[in-house]
């Protein structure tokens, strides 16, 4: 909870009387603090069966701002499991369809759609300042990517997944064990990241159903709300097994050899007035002649591609080069890694425009 968005970035509050009426049953729950939810921001990465149900539960609980990130479009197979999708949404970006459904379902919630992969959809500064980051992904590679980015800025992570008749919820805190700690070196390099439900990659998969997704999402959301309320919630892995009727916790142990714990030191970050919607040239004006500003994502028409922003047209927008909102842009000096620094992009509307 390092740096919340400014008040103008938060949703309009419901009229007091309506808010009291809507959430009056919550007031009867020990430890529940509705005010802690109204100004909270949750980033939900992966907006499929698990992600839509999680987002719905967070919104109905009263979380004020949801950032929904997914590069995929709604497929007919999603209609049997996605809580926020209708037949009219087939072919529409999942994040956009889910955001529209949430704003209709829960007046006052601010649901922002990011139709992009994680590294192009949610900037590192957004992960750092979010009150919650929730992983509802369906591949090892995507989880490794999110884990690495959260570690860079010291963000905790709540991760969940399902198997045919059950699910798992994993709570990782900054400085502790991470998802990668439970993987072998080979597993950390797994390329199993499907970009579409309509055209998955050829890897082993398993069935999924709405009931199991809903059960796992409910457990994940309950854990998330307790974290927001500051209630005791251990860093652990919880397995939920409906068939035997059990749920149990396993300790998450940090692997000292896990390479996913690299951290960007706060003192190496400089805030800028440039936003992702601004032009490359405006950012490069902040870079010295002997420095090179880099993108986290390659751009250009392959072959070849590049990550050097000076190779882009100066009037191209950063967003058009797959630079995420509020990203931290690495700036390096060849041969002198000690001089590496980061330029933090401003939020849209707070930059040069």
UniProtKB/TrEMBL annotation:
InterPro entries the record matches: ThiF/MoeB/HesA, ThiF_NAD_FAD-bd, Ubiquitin-activating_enz
Gene Ontology MF annotations: nucleotidyltransferase activity; thiosulfate-cyanide sulfurtransferase activity; ubiquitin-like modifier activating enzyme activity
Highest taxon in the source lineage: Bacteria
Cross-referenced Pfam families: ThiF
Cellular component, GO, one term: cytoplasm
Boundaries of every THIF-type NAD/FAD binding fold domain copy: 29-239
Gene3D superfamilies: NAD(P)-binding Rossmann-like Domain
The name this protein goes by in its record: Molybdopterin biosynthesis protein
Origin organism lineage: Bacteria, Bacillati, Actinomycetota, Actinomycetes, Pseudonocardiales
């Amino acid at each position: 909870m390092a740096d919340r968005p400014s008040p103008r970035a938060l949703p309009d509050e419901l009229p007091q009387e309506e808010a009291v009426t809507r959430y009056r049953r919550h007031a009867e729950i020990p430890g529940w603090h509705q005010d802690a939810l109204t100004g909270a921001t949750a980033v939900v990465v992966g907006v499929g069966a698990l992600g839509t149900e999680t987002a719905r539960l967070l919104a109905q609980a009263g979380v004020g701002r949801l950032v929904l990130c997914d590069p995929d479009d709604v497929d007919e197979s999603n209609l049997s499991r996605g809580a926020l999708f209708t037949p009219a949404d087939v072919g529409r970006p999942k994040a956009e369809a889910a955001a529209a459904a949430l704003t209709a379902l829960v007046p006052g919630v601010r649901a922002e759609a990011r139709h992009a992969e994680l590294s192009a959809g949610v900037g590192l500064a957004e992960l750092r300042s979010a009150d919650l980051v929730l992983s509802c992904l369906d591949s090892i590679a995507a989880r490794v990517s999110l884990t690495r980015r959260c570690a860079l800025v010291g963000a905790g992570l709540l991760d969940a997944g399902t198997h045919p008749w059950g699910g798992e919820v994993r709570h990782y805190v900054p400085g502790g064990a991470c998802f990668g700690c439970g993987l072998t070196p080979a597993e950390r390099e797994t390329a199993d990241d499907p970009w579409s439900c309509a055209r998955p990659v050829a890897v082993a998969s398993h069935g999924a159903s709405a009931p199991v997704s809903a059960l796992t999402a409910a457990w994940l959301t309950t854990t998330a709300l307790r974290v927001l309320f500051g209630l005791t919630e251990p860093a652990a892995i919880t397995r939920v097994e409906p068939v035997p009727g059990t749920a149990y916790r396993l300790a998450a142990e940090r692997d000292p050899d896990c390479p996913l714990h690299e951290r960007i030191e706060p003192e190496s970050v400089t805030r800028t007035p440039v936003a992702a919607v601004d032009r490359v040239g405006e950012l490069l004006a902040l870079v010295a002649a002997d420095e090179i500003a880099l993108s986290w994502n390659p751009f250009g028409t392959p072959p070849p591609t590049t990550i050097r922003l000076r190779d882009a047209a100066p009037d191209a927008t950063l967003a058009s080069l797959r630079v995420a909102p509020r990203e931290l842009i690495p700036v390096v000096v060849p041969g002198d890694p000690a001089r590496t620094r980061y330029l933090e992009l401003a939020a849209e509307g707070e930059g040069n425009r």
